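Task: encode each sequence below as structure tokens.

Item 1
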Amino acid sequence: MLGLALSPVSGNRPAPWWPNGALYAADFTGWRFMRAGQGVPAAEALSFSRASAKLAPDLAGTWLSFAADVPAVTDRGLLLEPARTNAIRNSAGSGALPGTPGTLPTNWTRFVGGGLAASVGTSGMERGLPFVDLALSGTSNSANGTQISFDSPTGIAAASGQTWTQSIFLSLPAGTLANISFIRINLIEVAPGGSALGTLYGSNIRDSLTATPQRFSETQTLVQPGTAYVRPVIEIAYGNAANIAMTLRVAGGQMELGSAATSPILTNGSALTRAEDIMVLTHPLSSFDATAVLDTGATASLAGHNQNEPLPLGWLNGGMLRTLTS
């Protein structure tokens, strides 16, 4: 009689992707989930809602659009944000017509000092955002500057003591900054009648500008007692007899109440609000601790979170959520 010794085969089953001992795990870039030791579909791991569309960036720097109630997940992770309003009424730059001087986008204005010629160039889309090219050329006849305003003096209501963050994507597709003294993002506080009360100056970003679009932001707290409006502007300064030939590409201008910039909210005629992201985890425990890994490589910890409550948004510090384990 032939006897066969049979034993279980080990080592051929792939190891689970979640950490040993975890009760819950989420890999948002891979869109896979575990609950109580078993892989489960997203519908059994979480619920999600958002009452509006939004944008989120991928690793290449392109802003992708996500419909209402669709989690904003790219190869960078999941972007969870609070509700915010872009108070600039025409961040998309609609209404621009090329020419010298050309026609600026609706609600935008431009003051050009020192005798330079100003023109409006190409409009289009780059990295998921609409842009407008604004050019300056010539030799200045005085030490002066150019100011580009993204809304009218009374277009954005505000009040003293509020904290606003202005952000915008800028690049230099043509020309040079060799004879430009500085470029900065400023905020003008405006009285009820439309007159300027004072200017809150941003830092000089001249040396940071390249041909690749970058987002620049400034956060300012309004200090003038009579402030009724705010006006976001870009200031470009140059000296006398300066030979100027530059094209500034402008995209995604945003003015929002808050201490940090959030994802771009594209407007075309009126201010627009992006709704809050609401995500509730179907965790096995009624109260749990969790650790998240963000797209920045940093980690964030959440302690004693109620299973029935949406994930808080501030604990991610503006990062995108790659993984979460508990």
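Item 2
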Amino acid sequence: MSAALDFIDVRHGYDRQIVLDSLSLLVPEGRVTCLLGPSGCGKTTLLRIAAGLERPWSGRVRLGGREVDGDNVHLPPEQRGVGFVFQDFALFPHLDVLENVAFGIRSGRRSDRHARARALLERLGIGDKADVHPHLLSGGQQQRVALARALAPDPAVLLLDEPFSGLDTVLRRGVYEDLRNLLGQTGVTAVVVTHDPVEAMILGDSIVLMNKGRIEQQGAPEALYRRPENPFVMRFLGEANTLSAHRDGTDAVTPLGRYPAPAGDGPLCAMVRPERIAVSPAGGLPARVQASVFLGRAVRLHLELDGLPLTAEVPADRLYVDGETVSVAVDPADLHLFPV
């Protein structure tokens, strides 16, 4: 698969503080890549470098095989052929929605530019808002206008910086689906910055999880969630129980039983997600229910296993009584052992 965007050994920072630490990343063409990580990890800086809004200290950046940043090269934003959706949407208040969307189309007759703008607005479900000014729109509608404007010039790469941060949960779900469908229909390459793991898993064909200017792990959402490479990845993608573990020959001994140990000879920690803990009346290790919380589709159980706290999440097909004894078990594929 060819690369739409390629970062090669990129290093950058502010006031001598390193934000991107010799980072290399290949963004495949026609896919949605989510840059995920905590605040300050460098994901927005990487996006701004791709757009040409920042020039890296060192390293190279290629767009569609063309070098746009390097030792003697720095192509300005307007020459890169990228679309950018900012957190605050940055719509022009004095222009109506149609003119906002058509603004980025530099060539063609005015009627052709307006026709493309109207077509995008229709595909995003706001064709009836073409003559309205931005301040009269809801946050979700403004977000759709910003997306349409960024897509109007048919960019080689679409860059989105926390595009849903200003929307409430209900609005986000609708926009997620619209954006996912629209990107799939157009085939445009997109890079989305987010700090929300759920958002990244819904939108991304691939997730790049960053921390302190480096890439911790990248791959398909399911791969990061089910096969994390270290505790940081495990915790960032979802809740996890952390338990002690020690080696005994080729096994790791944990409060949940013995499991095959990874290679090495150092100390270990064991981690398992709440929903991967099987809870049954009998057949496993005995645990006592300390508290249960009904969540609708699931029940969250706070358990005590040999004096250790353990959280499980099970289907809401029965009620649990505080103090009752249940059995717990974990499949070896669901228990992750990491070197300490």
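Check on item 2: The chain has eight helices and 20 strands. The chain has two domains: 3-234, 239-339.
End of task.
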